[in-house]
Amino acid sequence: MSNASLQEQVESAAARFEAAGIESALVDAELLACHLLDCSRGELQSKIILGATMDSAARASFETLVGRRAAREPLQHITGKAYFRSLELRVGLGVFVPRPETEGVAQLAIDALRLTATEEPIAIDLGTGSGAIALAMATEVSNAKIYAVEKSPEAMVFTSANFARYGGDNATLIQGDLADAFQELNGRASVVVSNPPYIPNRMIPRDLEVRNFDPELALYGGDDGMDVIHLVSDSARRLLHSGGTLIIEHAEIQSQQVCQLLLASGWRQVRAHKDLTMRDRAVSAIK
Ligand SMILES: C[S@@+](CC[C@H](N)C(=O)[O-])C[C@H]1O[C@@H](n2cnc3c(N)ncnc32)[C@H](O)[C@@H]1O
Question: How many CB atoms lie within 10 A of CB 89?
C-alpha cells in the first residue's frame, strides 16, 4: 500500500476524536503522532509542512493509538506520561493523572516552604498519587525534606518510578494510610499539602476518561465528598508545628464547606484560593 500524508492522518484522527466527543481533538491527534514519531509538536508541524508521509506500518501503529483514544482512554495513559510543572511523570492505569490546576496548589505549598525560616523545612504530601506535588516541592525547594504517603499499591508502581527518577535524597515515599502516616514527624512539619479524593460518591464524573480510568480511591470522598478532607485536617494538625501551613485542594463547590470544617477544627487564617480560571479550588490555613 502506498504511503499516506501525515497531515491527512492527523486530520482524520482529529475528526474521529471530535466525533467521539473529545474537546481537544486536534491537539490530541498531534500529540499521539508526536508520541509515535518521537518528536515535538514543532517538529511535527515542520514534517507536515514538508509533506511527510506515513508508511503502512506506521499507519497501523497510529491507527491502534487513535482507536484507544477514540474509546476515551486518557491521552496520558496511552503515552505513559503526564507533564506537571517541570516534571515528566510516569502514569497509567491505577494512578491518578495529575491535573493542571494542581500545579497552582503545588505553588502554594512551594511558596509556604520558601517562607519558612527553618534551614531544612519538612513538607508532607498526603495521598501523593503519581508524586506530582511532592516531587515538585522536592525539585523546586532543594533545602526542604519532603515526605509523601500513598495508599494504593497499584498507584505505588508509578509513584516509586517517579520518585526514583526525581526524588533525590530529600524525598521519602511510603505506602500507607494518610490517617496515621509519619507518626515520627508529629509536630515537626512546616507544610502539609493534599489533593485528596473529594467527589461525593453519587456524583459520577461525566468525563469518560475520569469515570472509566482514574482509580476510585483517587476520586470519591464519601457521601458529601468530605470524608478524606476530615482525615487530612486531623493528620495535618498532628503533623504540623504551631504556625505551620496546611493546603488542601477541593472541588469548586466545596470552598465554603472546607473553610467551615477547618475553622471548626481550630485552624487560623483560613483562606480560599482560586485557580487560573478564577474558580475556588484550594484552601490554606495556619495551625
Ligand atoms: C485526587 S488523587 C491526587 C493524587 C496527587 N496528589 C495529585 O495531585 O495528582 C488522591 C490520591 O490520594 C490517595 N488516597 C486516597 N485515600 C488515601 C488514604 N487514606 N491514604 C493515603 N492515600 C490515599 C489516592 O490513592 C490518590 O492517589
Answer: 26
